[in-house]
Amino acid sequence: MLSNMEQRIRECYDAFMEAVTEDRDLWEIALLEYYRWPLEYWQEKPEEDWEQPIPACFEELAPELPRLVKRKEEVRPNDDFASVQLNLEWRYGWNYSGIQEIRQRRLSPQAVGLLLEYYLLVETLGDDCGDRSCRILFEEESDRKVLEGIVGHGVQTPEEEMTLALGLKELCERWQLKEDLDEEEMGWLLDLMEHLLESAFLYDCGEAGWHLYELLSDEDRFGDHWEPLDLLRQAAEAGSVDAQCEIGWQFYTEVMKMPKEHFLGGYCGDEISGEEAVHWMEEALPHKIDMVPYLAGLLLDGKGVPADEERAVRALTAAVGGQYEGDGAYVERCTCFWMLAKCYAEGRGVTKDRRKAAELYRQAQDSDYYLFDYYRDGVDVPRNPRAAVRYWMRDMCFHHGLLLWVDILVRVSAPEGCARLRPDLLRRLWTGWKQQSGEEAFYDLMCTDLPSSRTGTDDPFARLCGLLDQEKVRLLYDGAWGGDSRCGDILQTLLASGAATREMLAQLRPNSNGVYDWPDAWYEEALESIEDWLAREAHEKEWAEQLKDLEWEEEQVPAEEQEDFAF
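Above: the chain sequence. Below: its structure as tokens.
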């Protein structure tokens, strides 16, 4: 199996060969020669002659090796590989005299990026890879003109300029060029990226303005204090949603007195007004949900801007009704559901409506036990211990960081009864979760013991783990009943490990929807235990507040008076 680095090199090689139309043998020789070195260099492979077996990512080219060796000897007199390089450079514009010839051909930004990658890798390996000699980049005056010529004939539109700049940035990160290029060489590359982004931004490519801000900020290349904000404003006005969000985020950071290390040289939050920040946050709302919780928080609490609860509710309502993509969109949308539900529950910016609050809380990851109270009390809906217990479990899992369990309980906590988790649904659970294996994440969770180090029966967390163990058995049973053999195998393992699982299975009964679940009496008993814990927790909190007040009062009594009360 190829490593990520080998896959990348193979990808570059294939794309490069597609762009070559003439003298493919010569290019193939050079590419095999040069791409072998970075593989061996970064993977610390032993030195080998070119005639030895080529790297794993080129194994299918092995049958062509004899022909290429023969062809190489034809263009490599005196065993001097430099002649191949000079031949290619001369014929394809890799030196100044050939620039006019190469400019007559049009290459895609991808091909241009690969040419630059090829050239930079060749010239940065130096003698560390063996006895191969290669000159230092920019040692000859023509190097800059060669590279500029490659760039010049490969990009024609602002979008292509931005694409090439971002490709070069990715190249620097992938090959860690900062460690291998000297200050002059790295400076040239950064200048090139900055020039490409500036040119693209000049021709109304707003996203290029945002990426230019990122580059200048990360590399600390801003000239003065005002430059970051000026650039952000211009990019925001040109339509860059990221720039609009950045203005809002920096204002929020300033108002909330948060650490500013993340911004490096591009921080300008102290120069942004509340009115401007809210304006750009609202401009970004139709396209990105990231800033909505911060915008609503500012408007609800009056932090840095006049309080406006109705405006906050409008922003949250638009956010929960929109369609957003991205890694954090799901979490941010759940946060918006939670904030909007709280507004309806407390009547902030909207008429108080417990039913609407409950509906919104169901779509959040947490309800602060609101749904537990809602279904336990049965004021606006029929009392439902089953739903109350499951929503309590969901909120507890969220507070303890058991986010995959939160996701399960969101799906199965509906008061009308749980839908059967069909095998096809199980395979799709949590696809896209970072650090998870997609369809395998559910089975991994079912095989993993719950992270409880506490054994006290009066501990709510220990009781939660007990409830989740039973929920695990029910989920596995439903999956096995629906034809998922993996669920059946895991359930058999649990059955073989002790009698507790057999006792859980013995209690399962089909509910009104035909899904196996625990009897109502089981939920009534669990509900009673949860109510006891919550009552004790409230009592302990009340005592802690009283004790804190007493300690504060004692601090106000002069020391000489305290001695009069000493025993």
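Residues 181 and 419 are 58 Å apart (CA to CA).
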